[in-house]
Amino acid sequence: MRFRLWFAGSVPLLAAMLAVALLPLGCGGSDKSKATTHNSKVQEDPWLKAVIALRQESDAAACRRILGELNQGLASAPANSQAKLGDAEALAIQSTLNLTDAEMKEIRSSGYTSLDPNHLADELYLRDVARSLDAAKLPVAERARTAFDWVCRQVVLDPWTSPAGPGRLQPNPPLPPAYVLRRGWGSGLERMFVFVAICRQLEIDACLIGPAEAAKQEMLFQQPGPVVAFPRGPFWGVGVRDGSDILIFDPWKEQALPGKNGRPATLADVRANPRDLAVWLDNKDFAWTTTADDLKAGEIFLVASISSVTPRMKLLEDKLATDLGVKLYINLAETKKRVENAAKSIPVRYYSPPEQFGPARALNSFLLAAEGGIAVDSPEVPSLYLSYVFDQLTKAKLFSIPEDIEYSEPKNRFKQRAADMFGASFLGNPSPRERLQRGQFVEVTRSLVKLKDYFGGFENQLRSADAVALNAATREWISQLNSLYDQLNGAAAADKGTIRALIDDHCKPSSTILNSILVAAVARPGMAEATFLIALTKHEQAERAGARAGRSAAVAETDPAKKATAEKAAAVAKASAAETWAEARDWWGRYEPFVAYQNDSYPGRAALAKRLTEKATALAAK
Fold first, then answer.
1. Phi-psi category of 29—alpha, beta or left, where left has phi over 0 and alpha has psi -120 to 50?
2. Residue 281: inside a domain, yes or no?
3. What is the pLDDT of residue 27?
């Protein structure tokens, strides 16, 4: 993701800010400081060379370079050592995922394609997320619940829409899971796709739950009844395979459906006895939109992407298994068979509608051609990718430009500059959000505290005695700017160039007044965002500490041979968890003054902050 830093280094104040905003953030949780041993063996083995490189870098650009070098290294390898796809397997994939002949060319390629680096980078991202949960050794139900709760904290329920005429909004299709995570908000369906993707890295089979007719419905299917701004789509739940059961979670209610003995409900049980969920079905205040008929009709739908079903991804996964342990490949038939064995005769199929952004082709359709996808951008029809970037940068209600500026052109120009400043700090690659999701808690906290301090310094400057004199100068500067635009509007065509030059000189990057306007526009948004992300980071640390304390307590209760030692360890873990929860509570308290300020631009954040504050407060007291 690139941002136009038009003003970088123009004045000491902004240079200082950008020095912090653009601090090297690293890529993918790797340590670039470790020297790579380039001996003759590495040079001779392209696979070993790729493994070593991916230990150090895992973003899309690095994956693109590494897979390109791997292609070159494999070019001279024996043909029988390269990934191949048989005709029967190809036909099965095409039929299962409803793919076109053009899409099958991507599937059949034995060499790594321009789309593959994006798939590899995204799955390495999701692998880091899965590892950060510290849940690999937990039973499936607890592992899944841990991942589900994490998704509900990291993806605020706020569907993405775009203007579709006066007073109307149209829903946008779901994004690929890694991009939903980087953004931090999305629809219930996007939460489902993120959860399914993380479950794959946790070695859990996950699926969508909906009626049989969902197989032919689009992702933004409008359910019968009143028309809503953002339809929920054809599915009402997401499930995971746990032995011979399919456990169900609701991404809108952010809970597992209540089952027996404290476990999530199973699909077989709710189909057979939907009234067992009367506590949800009959509670009008709970406002559960799923009905008993929906529960009875629930069937199982699996998803897979184009990149994930190619033989070359199976080969790559196998080669990386020991060192990186990332899941890149889905065997369609074997996955379906495993789920069918747990489904108790409930139908199981793949969900792959022919629409452009369906699960199979979401990444390919989302990315621009220059990034390895097929999307094309134009002024008339902006691509979904650029809309995604733009919508994160232009939180217009946050970037406040003086109303005294009478013309929209300079206002929009200055808002864009403020947005670029914000983007450089919070939306770079990798962003602070991505780093916290990968589990780099200490490093990202350090970076975010520096950002918070710098933005806080700008706010302090705006309240200083010098700001009073600056305000008078600012009003005069704005008056001169308005006068120049008055002249521009009334000028003959031959004179417009001269006036444009005067405007550019008036708004030059070294202008102290302009930079004071930009600082005023971005200081509070920056403070708010840094504080929110620190609070979220501290909360995730507390969740891990609390889980470790719980496991230590369980050992003390269940293993008499280790009781004395385990009890001491459990007491230490409990005290540590309480301290960590208290720190999270304190940071949520620091974010509280910004909640109302950010609420219009980030719907759903206030509810998330309230819920997490209450949890941190309760657990800090234990």
1. left
2. no
3. 42
In this structure, are strands 237-242 and 169-171 parallel, antiparallel, or unpaired? Answer: unpaired
| Residues 6+ away with beta carbon under 8 Å from 475 | 404
Residue 375's DSSP bridge partners are 368
**Neighbouring residues of 465: CB distance < 8 A, sequence distance ≥ 6:** none
Nearest residue to 209 (alpha-carbon basis) of 323, 352, 13, 347: 347
Q: What is the pLDDT of residues 369-402, one digit of tens each?
A: 999 999 988 777 778 888 888 888 765 567 888 8
Residue 465 has what pLDDT? Answer: 54
Average pLDDT taken over every residue of the chain? 88
Domain co-membership, 329 together with 250: yes
Return the exposure string of 557-572: e unless at least 16 CB atoms fall within 10 Å of the residue's CB, then b.
eeeeeeeeebeebbee
Report whether 43 contacts 551 (CB < 8 A).
no
- Whichever domain contains 246, its CATH number is 3.10.620
In this prediction, the residues of the chain whose per-residue pLDDT falls under 50 are: 1-38
Whether 265 contacts 141, CB under 8 Å: no
Q: Is 490 exposed, middle or buried (0-12, 13-18, 19+ CB in 10 A)?
A: exposed
Tokens (6 digits) for 601: 């631009």
Please list, in sequence order, all residues whose beta carbon lies within 8 angstroms of the beta carbon of residue 263, skipping any fewer than 6 positions away.
141, 247, 256
Burial group, residue 482, by CB count within 10 angstroms (0-12, 13-18, 19+): middle
Domain that holds residue 164: 117-256+299-371
Radius of gyration, alpha carbons of the chain: 27
pLDDT of the residue at 587: 98
Side by side, the strands of the sheet bearing 348-350 are 255-256, 245-250, 237-242, 206-210, 299-302, 348-350
Amino acid at 118: N
Q: How does pLDDT run across 486-513, given as a tens digit for each residue? A: 999 999 999 999 999 999 999 998 998 9
CA 521-524-527 angle, 5° bins: 135
- Calculate the alpha carbon distances from 211 to 221, 297, 433 in Å: 12, 5, 35
d(CA 164, CA 251): 27
132, 175: one domain: yes
The pLDDT assigned to 450 comes to 95
Does some domain include residue 282? no
Number of compact structural domains in the chain: 3
Cross-strand partners of 162: 170
Pairing mode of beta strands 185-186, 156-157: parallel
